[in-house]
Amino acid sequence: MLPNLPRKLGLGALVALSSASLPVAAAAHVKWFAPYIVDAAPAPIARTLTDPWFWTGIVLVLAFFIATRLVERTAVGETTLDAMDRATNPLWLRLDDFVRIMIAGFFVAIFSVGGVYLTPDLETPAEWVSWLQLLIAAGIVSRKTMPLSAAGVIFLWVLALRDYDPFHLLDYLALGVAVAAYLMLESSGREDWRKHRFEVLRWGVAIALMWSSLEKFAYPEWFYPLVAEKPFLTFGLPRDMFIPMAGVAEFTMGFGLLATPLVRRLSALALLVIFITAVYPFGRVDLIGHALIMAIIIVIAVDHTRELHFWSWIRRALVGVPIGLAGALVIFVTAYWGLHAAFYGTDTRTMAEIRSQQGGMATHSFSLEYPHGPQATATMRQGTDLPQTAPAELDDTSVTDAYAQSMMGMHDEMMAGLEHEDPDVAFVLGMIPHHQGAIDMARIQLAAGSDPENMALARHIIADQQKEIDAMRAWLRERGVEAPGL
């Protein structure tokens, strides 16, 4: 889902600390910006449980929650909530309009970007998907058609299952279902149902943040390229200190969204600061990808509701803070590691093992920069070598041979494809090996070259050419033509 993580205390001071020292990367979904392998075995949970920085983060956040709960029980806490209500009242009175505009705006934005189902890492070559997104946005205009838009959101998630593993899609299940549920409840004529519409959004974002935060504990290696590329994200902290504390920040603030009103709203404000701060270093992709989450976090910060509908006694009790957080950790960790084992088995290799066997490389995939989609699960289970993103060390002679081999292979396949009787099919069958040849040359450059500009160009060639290959193969599949390499 963080990509990850998502995202990676007096009252004002604690909030400021949580948004500054448990930092920006907590809000950046790693899968949008760095290599990853979903079906690699997660790191043993003992690795996290023996990490002192993990426990340091837990202690800091528990102190924040308990201090806030103590204040919330006093007249100062009630006065603080009243002041927040007055400040946010104009938006509270039009909150449904705000939510509907933001949901519609999100789908218009991803329609304009094109090529994705719901988020940047869920890519698709199907153009009609973008037009469905525009219809979803249009359906939100009227309460009568909002249920159709809700069905469209669920359909897009299910549709993505054709191209992506179910475990990968779990990152977005809670949020997608929450948005669809909001649309259904908001369009309902039953007030006893409608009163829960903001609550389902809150639970959806909380679950999404807690689930995606576990990537920082299960797959810290996914974050290494991102931290190396943008070292300022760690605020000078050592990498192995920063990543677990960022994971703690994302998980615990997600948990805080389900707590009592003051804890909930202060957690939302801290998260909003983190998400907004992440927009500058990660750009438009981050802004569009997180637009719905940011909008819902604003809803949580604005929500005047004081009532707690579920487990209210334990959520209000002071002892409920450590008990609730411990329970949430147990539930989510068990679900994450357990479901991963159920989907992929227990005999896959961890990222640390893959990195060591690939000479320190971060990942493998058919796309060097954004390796998503089908993964080499069978290969990993057999323990054989994974495909490399670039050849091993090459001397001057072997570089020449490697270039020659890549060109010969490209030429033979390209000429064979161009012989097809259908000129459109011939063009595509010829272009696929042509693009693959460019990718092979770029990989050789990454292994043997040293010029920074050429290295950057090679990475872009691999990413861009692979996207076009995927689109051409999809075109051939629609016409029942066997594509080379399949």
Name a few traits of the molecule.
0% strand; single chain; 486 residues; transmembrane; signal; 22 helices; 2 domains; transmembrane helix; membrane; DUF305_CopM-like
Give an overview in words.
- By secondary structure, the protein is mainly α.
- It folds into two domains: 11-342, no CATH class; 396-478.
- It has 22 helices and no strands.
- The protein has helices at residues 11-20, 45-49, 52-72, 75-93, 95-113, 127-139, 146-160, 166-187, 191-194, 197-213, 215-218, 224-229, 239-256, 261-289, 291-302, 312-316, 320-344, 351-357, 377-382, 396-417, 423-448, 452-478.
- Helix 8 (166-187) runs antiparallel to helix 10 (197-213), helix 13 (239-256) crosses helix 14 (261-289) and helix 21 (423-448) runs antiparallel to helix 22 (452-478).
In short:
This protein is mostly helical and 486 residues long. The protein has two domains: 11-342, no CATH class; 396-478. The protein contains 22 helices and no strands.
**Amount of beta strand:** under 5%
Major beta sheet summary: none
Give the beta-strand count: 0
Quickly give the structural class: mainly alpha
Question: Could you state the oligomeric state of the chains shown?
Answer: single chain
Total domains: 2
Rg for CA atoms:
24 Å
**Spans of 5+ residues with little confidence (pLDDT < 50)?**
1-27, 358-393
Summarize the helix and strand pattern as letters. Answer: HHHHHHHHHHHHHHHHHHHHHH
How far do the termini sit from each other? 28 Å
* Nearest-integer average pLDDT: 80
